[in-house]
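Hi R.,

As promised, here are both runs. First protein below:
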Amino acid sequence: MLRARRFVIQGRVQGVGYRYFVLRQAHLAGLYGFAQNNPDGSVEVWAEGQESALDEFEVELRKGPTMSRVENVWTEPAVPRRVRGFEIR
């Protein structure tokens, strides 16, 4: 069943390749959606796909790429939009 989640990642996540890391992890998990920088320094991610894939994806979001420092990942369920592809905004 198709599920969707919105994530907001806080910490040292801008200027360290975090969104490109998210893009790669989304492709590996077969997820669709987007990643974008927020003005407050956080990164917002919208992802949809299978629930098990979203669970694994969240684990990777909490790790982040080598140069990042993830301090908090806030998540909430969302209504799937049935988007295709994954993009960096």
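And here is the second one, sequence first, then its structure tokens:
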Amino acid sequence: MDHQLQPTVTFILPVQNKQNLVIEQINSFFKFSEQYPGFCEIIIVTDNFEDKEVYLLWLALKLNKVNHPYVRTKMIRYATKLDVKELIETGIKNALGEKVIVVANNSERIKQFLLKDKNTVKDDVLVTSNPFNIDALKETLIKH
């Protein structure tokens, strides 16, 4: 990417139950922010009841912020079980980025939800199941 002003980016990670790759996803978001010349933020929205799981998410955010203090982070935790679309709606409503990237395992279902419900959708919401390929993320942002 060149040095012109890049769109701001928000990563939304809805977390339900135990997800094996969540810590790796958080690390990849911060790695992306190292190479991206614009503002980045990460929003985790969870309805997980296990304190130790939520603590691990919080710890991953805090440890990464040591080396990336300019990346905005936010964790929103619900005390009741919600559908994944409600978690995503909350993330979108709290997003500051011009481009929003929702990272979800069931990305096709999420894409259908976003197409149907235009009330909660920002201008540019992208859905992916694999945030680990940083070059692919950059290319996706350029295309949209």
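A quick note on the second one: The domain at 9-143 is CATH 3.40.50.2000 (Rossmann fold). Let me know what you think.

Best,
J.
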